[in-house]
Write a structure and sequence with these properties.
single chain; alpha/beta; Nucleotidyltransferase, domain 5; 6-stranded mixed sheet; 7 helices; 36% helix
Length: 263
């Protein structure tokens, strides 16, 4: 892929956009998903493109009510009809799943990008609003696991208790990023919440990965992690994990490349 392609991932909390070219993602930006206005979207796309020639655009979304705005804006910006990620496109893998239409577009993009970068078998852990695990084995999407994400946990604690505060883990600096240097006993309410989130999610990832390894009967399965909280949750851990921040956008670009005739 030699031309620039606009790739957009509409998530529950934030929308990420970037330019894909020759297998690389650049100029990554973010907007709030539910509150971004038409003008804000148009400005973000104009800044992204900045007089570059655009070959096309692809949209990946788990928030259907925002699709119309982005599809119209992408068409106006690129001069091309954008393509949306869905299970009937070529994905570089088979789908061995009872109801393919129910698989989130972001999970398809993650699996497509992961199997192209790391081969099969591969497990993708996506640390977003929800924490999802997706499994590709024998070059087929098999399914996965979904649990509440880190922001849901901290928001729920604040909403359902009288004294616990709202805590933005990605902005909290009360514990070191190095896991070995992190205290185990919190000396403040916020620190106790952050330690609990970090150790709790690390333990959950370890248990899920171990059981998936056992199920797949493979010690060579690759674990990769993406999403806004992946680096925070897994930094310094002893798991054989590859942190891949732009995996979803890379997967969207890969799906575009596989379906150029439709674009």
């Amino acid at each position: 892929m030699c031309e620039h392609v606009i790739v957009v991932d509409i998530g529950n909390t934030s929308t990420t956009l970037g330019l894909a070219r020759a297998g690389r993602i650049s100029r990554i930006g973010r907007l709030p998903t539910r509150t971004a206005s038409r003008a804000a979207v148009a400005d973000a796309l104009a800044a992204l493109v900045h007089n570059r020639a655009i070959a096309g655009a692809m949209l990946c979304s788990v928030v259907p009510e925002r699709n119309g705005l982005w599809l119209r804006s992408l068409h106006a910006c690129s001069g091309r009809t954008p393509v949306a990620v869905h299970h009937r496109l070529k994905l570089g893998m088979r789908i061995a799943y009872p109801d393919p239409a129910s698989i989130g577009a972001d999970r398809l993009a993650n699996a497509c990008g992961a199997v192209h970068r790391y081969g099969s078998p591969v497990i993708v852990a996506d640390f977003g609003t929800a924490l999802t695990f997706d499994v590709v084995a024998d070059h087929a999407y098999r399914g996965g696991i979904i649990v509440p994400g880190l922001p849901l946990m901290t928001d729920y604690l604040a909403e359902k208790t009288a004294l616990l505060p709202h805590l933005r883990l990605d902005r909290y600096h009360g514990i070191p990023l190095n896991l070995r240097a992190m205290p185990v006993i919190g000396k403040s309410t916020r620190q106790a919440m952050a330690i609990g989130a970090r150790l709790g999610y690390l333990g959950m990832v370890r248990e899920i990965f171990t059981r998936l390894q056992h199920t797949l009967k493979s010690r060579s399965v690759c674990l990769c992690a993406t999403g806004g909280y992946a680096a925070w949750a897994l930094a310094g851990c002893d798991l054989p994990v590859r942190i891949d921040p732009d995996l979803t956008l890379y997967g969207i670009a890969r799906i575009y490349e596989l379906n150029r005739s439709k674009a």
